Amino acid sequence: MNYRKTALGCALAIGAPYGAQAADAVVVAEPEPIGYVRVCDTYGAGFYYLPGTETCLRVGGYIRYEIGVGDLFGADRDDDGRGDTYFKRARAALKIDARSETELGTLRRYMHINFQHDIDSDGGHEAMEIESAIIELGGLRIGVNDSLFITFVNYAGYVSKDDVIGYGPFATPQIAYTYKNENGFTAAVSLETGYDPFVVDSYMPHVVAGLSYAQSWGAVALVAAYDSVSEEWSGKLRLDATFSDTVSAFAMAGLKSDDSAPYSQFYGIWGGRWAVWGGATIKASDKASVNFQLSYDEDENFAAVANVAYQVVPDLMVTPEIGFYDNFAVDGADMIGGFVRMEASF
Predict the structure, then answer these.
(1) Cα distance between residue 148 and residue 132, in whole Å
(2) Among the listed residues 136, 141, 200, 132, the one whose alpha carbon sits nearest the alpha carbon of residue 171
(3) Are 274 and 262 in contact (CB under 8 A)?
(4) How far is CA 189 from the centre of its chain?
């Protein structure tokens, strides 16, 4: 028998009651109060204060799945740009918005990153893209964001395929300033870098400027841009009208200095010298909205797109869409396609 083990066992047995009494006598410290997250309602819903700071943060995004089919929306495109098989895309978007107040105004840090997987006749293709990464202080904005040429006039309509007739470029490095007053007037200017093949190649940047006026009836906005690479200019005028709580519409016209084919310059990417867009949104019920858009340019490109955006449950939207395209100057150029988007936001 191991003497040490026997002696230790006896000592533990004898001392057990006293050990329990000693444990009962230990004073446990009071738990510290739980630091609950404080809601920040200064900048809208979803913001909360970062613990120990006066910075408000909102984390959001969406999970999206899209299926396209037909000439206009499908994959496996031929030399004429036609698609005859399914195209599918899964996207996870992450948006982070941090804001705080300073003596120079609101300091905002915002990013929008897309992670996506495209599936077509060639297989799967994975990609990550920075849609937006900006710093804002007061009215000053620096970073990568969609061009002021399209954001200032609020893109086009509320259909997914709103750029069959292109209305301008998207993400580009920029330095921009926006001024707003209480009467509804807004003025903005942006110095932009562009992207291939219109990346700025000298000390002269692309320049965009806009003016707008908004009231309860709607809004009117004018934006103009100069492409320092092609040395061409473009402009757009947009009118929005709110007829009732259920019906709204828009009309937009674009004009550029050259009359060449689409994508001959960075901003006016439609065909010919001019183009027009128009559409409407009709709220059919608390859960469903009907949207349609028509567009046409001087090169006789025509597009019509319509959809129904249906909210299945809160934060889950399903949008079936159909589109038609034709170039009236070319025989057999017409295309049609179908599309459905399922998007769950958070």
Answers:
(1) 13
(2) 132
(3) no
(4) 21
Residue 12 CB neighbour total at 10 angstroms: 10
Stated pTM of the model: 0.85
Using CA atoms, how far residue 190 sits from 97, 139, 151, 173, in Å, is: 22, 11, 11, 10
Please list, residue by residue across 221-251, b when 16 or more beta carbons sit within 10 angstroms of its beta carbon and e when fewer do.
Answer: bebbbbbbbbebbbbbebebeeeeeeebbbe
Query: What's the rounded Cα separation, in Å, for the pair 190 and 193?
Result: 10
Identify the three-state secondary structure at position 30.
coil
Helix, strand, or coil here: 124? Answer: strand
Phi-psi sector, 44: left (phi>0), alpha (psi -120 to 50), beta = left
What are the CA-CA distances from residue 273 to residues 12, 235, 320 (Å)? 97, 11, 33
What's phi and psi for 231, nearest 5 deg?
60, 45
User: Residue-wise pLDDT tens for the chain (346 aa)?
Assistant: 444 444 434 343 434 444 444 445 556 556 555 557 899 999 999 999 999 899 999 999 999 999 999 888 876 555 555 666 788 999 999 999 999 999 999 999 999 999 999 876 666 789 999 999 999 999 999 999 999 999 999 999 999 999 999 999 999 999 999 999 999 999 999 999 999 999 999 999 999 999 999 999 999 999 999 999 999 999 999 999 999 999 999 999 999 999 888 899 999 999 999 999 999 999 999 999 999 999 999 999 999 999 999 999 999 999 999 999 999 999 989 999 999 999 999 9
SS3 of 186, please? strand
Which of 323, 270, 259 has the alpha carbon at shortest distance from 297?
A: 270
